[in-house]
Specification:
mainly beta; Rubrerythrin, domain 2; 4-stranded antiparallel sheet; 0% helix; 46% strand; elongated; Ribosomal_bL33; ribosomal protein; Large ribosomal subunit protein bL33
């Protein structure tokens, strides 16, 4: 089964400046703008905002 361009793999980078990142997939039709999620940053030891990096 081929990977769809509708759901690309995106990298979420920490805004805390620690260099931590998560990898996820998103639906471009539902969320065309950059994804922002609050996730746990193990280097910072707390939940911080992660933004989509291109």
């Amino acid at each position: 089964m081929a990977r769809s361009e509708l759901r690309p793999v995106v990298t979420l980078r920490s805004t805390a400046g620690t260099g931590s990142s998560y990898v996820t997939r998103k639906n471009r039709r539902n969320t065309p703008d950059r994804l922002e999620l609050r996730k746990f940053d193990s280097a910072a030891g707390q939940h911080v905002l992660f933004r989509e990096a291109r």
